[in-house]
Amino acid sequence: MHKGMRIHSDKNQKWDMARNVSAEDKKLRETSNEAMPHTLRNKAAQGFRSIGVNFTKSDLDDYVSSVLDGRDYRFIITF
Length: 79
Fold this sequence. Notes:
Elements: E1 5-8, H1 14-31, H2 37-50, H3 57-69, E2 75-78
Parallel strand pairs: 1-2
């Protein structure tokens, strides 16, 4: 069972990171019907990198799959 994407953040920036991740997730989900899977994957990678999120290929693949399937995805912010 997949546990979600772990995101490390500075303790003082954790709430900003949570808001940024939520906004990026919302933006990607709003455009997911218009994008091909490989395009959505590229947009997700670019968007998350732009806010300072490092991720593994499998995390990104699981995330994109959940967006395309309309499922929730768990982001775990650690500090």
